[in-house]
Amino acid sequence: MSDSAIGIFDSGLGGLTAVKELVKVLPNENIVYFGDTARVPYGSRSKRTIVRYAEQDATFLLSKGVKMIIAACGTVSSVATDLKNTLPVPFTGVVEPTAQAAVNATRNGTIGVIGTSATVNSCSYQKAILAKNKHLKVFQQDCPLFVSLVENSFIAEEDPIVQLVVERYLRVLKDQRIDTLILGCTHFPIIAKAIRNYLGSEVTLIDSGRETALYAAEVLRQQNLLRKDSSPGRCIYYVSDTVDDFKRTAQIFLGQSVMKDVYHTTL
User: Fold this and answer.
1) Distance CA 97, CA 109 (A)
2) Strand partners, 35
3) What are the φ and ψ backbone dihedral angles of 114, each rounded to 5 degrees?
4) Which parts of the chain are beta strand (E)?
5) Which of 23, 179, 182, 208 has its CA 20 to 30 A from that of 15?
6) What pairs with residue 207 in β-bridges?
7) Which tens digits make up the pLDDT trace of 20-67?
8) What is the rounded distance in angstroms from the CA atom of residue 122 to the CA atom of residue 174?
9) Longest Cα separation, the chain
10) Rounded to an integer, what is the distance from CA 50 to the centroid of its chain?
11) Rounded to whole angstroms, how far apart are CA atoms 162 and 221?
């Protein structure tokens, strides 16, 4: 299976930040990405609905013969926790790798977590962090408007709207004197500069997409599933809604245009 692709799914576009990081870490790997753009967002859905969507997303990727599945969605990783037990290939969400990175990074033992409402309400990051070190302090804040800002191209660090929303959400975490912040949604790294400007350079930002890419690479190495071919890998993208909208917005997340290898599919 080593020549098979790595499968990544997300509720929409945010998971593309994980794709970007995975390409950096494993440039020779083929990737199949599925964005459920017809049903985004997942963050405001019920647990039952999120689990059903996640199962359908994973089933689609399995139909493409992938060798590993990554749920690059913080909401799915937090809510559909039993998904890994039902799959015939290695699986990871973003919670465990990211929580471990935060535990390793904190200096004063005070960690902040931001994500969608579903992610924060699940307390998934808090539970994962405290399971690794019960003496740490964890403060959470849901930031639903961050997703809307990114998907509508409000991403510039000097944009007053971005600055206002960042301050509104993160003031409570700043007051707690956190020294580490988990960006618990794959949309959030897009506005990391604005977040860093507000919190200060002494606060370490933990990118869930980056940490998950590093973890996935280690899993593939351990299971001897890395691609043997040294040629550059290929990324193929599938979306459940319009292809044109995806192509137009994907550049924000990937840092480059995507004009081919994008296909529409129905689950």
Assistant:
1) 18
2) 10, 239
3) -125, 145
4) 6-10, 31-35, 68-71, 91-92, 110-115, 137-142, 180-183, 204-207, 235-239, 262-264
5) 179
6) 183
7) 999 999 999 999 999 999 998 888 899 999 999 999 999 999 999 999
8) 22
9) 50
10) 15
11) 40
